[in-house]
Design a protein that fits this description.
With about 290 residues, this protein is α/β, with parallel strands linked by helices. It folds into 2 domains: about 140 residues, Rossmann fold, CATH 3.40.50.1000; about 100 residues, Rossmann fold. It has 9 helices and 14 strands. Helix 3 runs parallel beside helix 4. The mean pLDDT is about 95.
Length: about 290
């Protein structure tokens, strides 16, 4: 089957009641919101559709809400926001015990300081890697310059100690402005290559979709669609959740799709890139626009 190439979301707006949007590369680029994307969110809500933002950002939903406002995505343009950071913190907090020096889990944080709200929500106690019971990975220490391979020595030592890693963002890369930067998923994949074990939260794993649908029980999955740019997380997650998917070409696959400035897409290339990933999105848009 060919992936349908559409020019705007309006062509499929009547087919669904629940629209689930990825953030990075779809609604914003990490620096600013895409005006056409925010226009789509508003139009859908005006039509009575439910709009949910589902992101693999490794921070709690509340902290991301404020960041979205700063980028130009106002709260009134969507109904609900769910993040992988929220799912991670909820799981760890449910098992956290003790307080002070006795607090557990004792974890080592691998990631930037901006992920501090996630750690605060997790409970437990942050310690040096030598004293840790697990690694909570929210990204790289500095994703502007670091690569996962830079952490080989201390990750190898962690594998030797059989430390499990909890990955709060399964994305391997994400768009930041016009650049792609590595994410926690890249570190998690490298840790597995070294022999470590990883538990991931977020797309494409069914649990986060199950949590989303538990809050929207009035809408059947046949009337829901995922709109995202990443085949391995957004599109695969939709397939595994049993819902349709609309692929945004102007995100992390823009080069592979040879997306031009006019938004033109080649049908054979679109089909080939999707097939190589083992995915079959319902349709593709050059970028999110009405």
């Amino acid at each position: 089957m060919s992936v349908s190439i559409i020019s705007g979301l309006a062509e499929m707006a009547d087919d669904y009641d629940l629209f689930i949007f990825d953030l990075w590369g779809v609604v914003h680029d990490g620096v600013t919101a895409y005006p056409d994307a925010t226009d789509c969110l508003r139009r859908l809500r005006q039509r009575g559709a439910r709009v949910v933002l589902l992101s693999n950002v490794p921070r709690p939903s509340a902290s991301v809400t404020q960041h979205l406002i700063e980028l130009g995505v106002v709260e009134g343009s969507y109904d609900w926001l769910l993040t992988s950071g929220e799912a991670t913190a909820t799981m760890i907090a449910a098992t956290a015990t003790g307080s002070g020096a006795d607090a557990r889990p004792a974890y080592f944080h691998l990631g930037p300081e901006r992920s501090r709200p996630t750690l605060d929500a997790c409970g437990g106690r942050e310690v040096a890697i030598e004293a840790a019971e697990m690694i909570i990975c929210t990204g790289l220490f500095d994703d502007e310059v670091d690569k996962a391979e830079d952490y080989r020595n201390f990750l190898t030592a962690a594998v030797t100690r059989s430390l499990p890693m909890v990955c709060a963002n399964p994305d391997v890369v994400a768009m930041r402005g016009d650049r792609m930067v590595p994410c926690a998923g890249a570190v998690a994949a490298f840790y597995e290559e070294l022999g470590g074990t990883v538990q991931r939260f977020g797309k494409p794993f069914p649990a986060i979709f199950d949590r989303l649908f538990a809050k929207t029980p009035d809408i059947p999955r046949a009337r829901a669609v995922m709109i995202g740019d990443a085949l391995a997380t957004d599109i695969r997650g939709a397939r595994q959740a049993g819902i349709d998917a609309i692929w945004i070409a102007g995100g992390i696959h823009a080069v592979a799709l040879a997306l031009g400035p006019d938004g033109g897409l080649d049908q054979d290339r679109v089909n080939s890139v999707a097939e190589q990933a083992g995915e079959q999105p319902t349709a593709i848009l050059p970028w999110l626009q009405w």
